[in-house]
Amino acid sequence: MNNTPQLAAPNEILNVLIVDDEQDIREMMAILLKELGFATLLAADGFKAMEAFHRHKPHIVLTDIKMPGKDGIAVLKEVKAACPETEVIMISGHGDMHLAVQSLKHDAADFITKPIDEELLEIALAKVSERIRLRRQVREHTENLENLVREKSAALVEMERRLAATQIMEGMGRAMTILASDPAAGEYFPEMPFYVAIHDAVCNVVTVNQAYQQRFGDRVGLSSCKIYERCGEPGWKSPVREAADQQASIHRHENMIAKDQTWLPVITHVSPVTGVGGKLELLLEIAVDISEMRRLQDELSRTQRKFERFFNTVPCAITVQDKNLQVVESNASFRKDFGEPQCRPCHQLYKRSDEPCTDCPVLATFEDQSPHQYETVVTTRGGENRNILVWTAPLADADGEVNQVLEVATDITQIRQLQDHLSSLGIMLGSMSHGVKGLLMAIDGGAYRVDKGLEKGDLQRVAAGWKTVRHRLDHMRRTVMDILYYSKSREPDLSPHALRGLAEHLAETVAAKASKAGIAFQTDFSQAEGTILIDEVAFSSAMVNILENAVDACLFNRNAEEHKIEFVVLSEDDQAVFRVRDNGIGMDQETRDNMFTLFFSSKGALGTGIGMFVTHEIVTAHGGNITVDSAPGKGTTFRVAVPLAESTETARHHDQHLIVE
């Protein structure tokens, strides 16, 4: 069964399936959605929800996460497996934030928390409605492109038919010879749709058909040469004269003079007719007007240039791929972002991978010869990650065989970033609030130990308790800074700092943690000269995050006999360079490509997925860039470069993010 909902027209009412085990909530949301202009379906549990989904194919599913029997996560997975285009919004309680994060990883469009805020619900529905309409626009764009290709292909076929007609002139000429010698054919000869003339052996016109006479006038008895535009040129022979002299068929392009004295481009074919003993008796001339064909050629050429300009200027990456997924044609937008295809497969160009995508829409189109849609993240040749919405359509040959697929990819990165920011902000704040709560409990425990130590005069207990308080306060500070930098954009509070002093402060912050973990921490600040303008709190937080990740990477690598971190700070040209190298577990290509993406973490449950995202935001806000060089089992090198004080003001707005193979 095809569960794909029809894409909404601009004014079409969208269908929303509401799934909640509480009847009051279902009915309340149904009333609210109807006021917002949506049609609603209601289901009391996950099983009834899937029955309604397969029966009615709604555009949007609004489901509670926690339900008896089949929960909201299971409904989300089944809906996305049956129809990836259906948008799913999750409803969670304040204690279900980990489930909300899990639902986003399964491609939920958004989530809202109970009690339901009507304004937030309206915003979430508006976002998914816009995505549905965006898909419709991409589909219409692709269909229009297919129609244009079909129209121009038909014009090309028509031109080829006209050219083919000129190639059968010789056979038709022989048929005319037979007709001319047959008394019964006299009544048909004047009606021939070509310009046909019969000349005698001395090259005078004997007779012509009606079309010839209407276009060129009554030329019977006149010299055969006079009708040609080049008649009289030194050394030039008319086609009729040349055929008579050589007693062989002649096929040439010439200009003939019409009775209104205009020039008519023709393809003329002259065949000699011999009598007894091979003596030349007559010459048969058949001329075809090619002015229309030239007009069509010029029009086709203009259309091809226009189509090529359209193909190359459309703001989408367009490719044509064969059954091996090799890109055989591409437009300028694709080549600009991903380089020359050189018949390489799309997964190498898009994702630098040797294997096709799991749900490749091109392979799906080859399989069922139907259009498919797919949303994914790709990497440009400059290392920039982009969200794209892909639409595929089959391209059939003259025999109806689909040997190629047209793929149109639209960059929706800005839309996706906005959606991620709006939908993830609430999740992040909720998740981090639980973390802050845990830190506060740890601080309470440390304060309790301090109080008891003071009460009993036990300074050792006081020191241990105070150490716990300081450690948790530092952790809380970094957590709050992450929330601050993600929740809103702001300019860094810049102040000058000596490069060497900053480096020593960063090393002192991390050295204790590395030493406690048994990791050799080596520093080199011998070339750290000059001053940089930074927001000390923010920039230090970003660098400490990179250094602590190096410690974690070493701890994860159980194969190394000795763990080591090198921290080098130096002045290089007009930049301050911070290099952190470890011999930890390393990263594969996918991890390197996605490490600065929000909520992406290679630490599993041990990571929040926002640390490196915030680090990248902080560095780029300072006009800097981060370069990563890593391989599995080979360790990782981070290189952070920010402008020295003299060049900071001109570089602060540059946003560079490079991934090195």
Q: How much beta, percentage-wise?
A: 15-25%
How many domains comprise the coordinates?
5
Main pleated sheet = 6 strands, mixed
In which range does the helix fraction lie?
40-55%
Global Rg: 39 Å
Average of per-residue pLDDT values: 80
Overall geometric form: elongated
Structural class: alpha/beta
The low-confidence runs, each spanning 5 or more residues with pLDDT under 50, are 160-192, 647-661
CATH superfamily of the largest domain: Histidine kinase-like ATPase, C-terminal domain
CATH class of the largest domain: Alpha Beta
Oligomer: single chain
Task: Predict the CATH topology of the largest domain.
Answer: Heat Shock Protein 90
Number of helices: 19
Largest sheet, spatial ordering of strands: 17-19-20-22-21-23
Number of E-type strands: 23
* Ends distance: 44 Å
CATH architecture label name of the largest domain: 2-Layer Sandwich
Domain PAC: 250-302, 372-424
Catalytic activity: ATP + protein L-histidine = ADP + protein N-phospho-L-histidine
Enzyme class: transferase
GO molecular function, one term: DNA binding
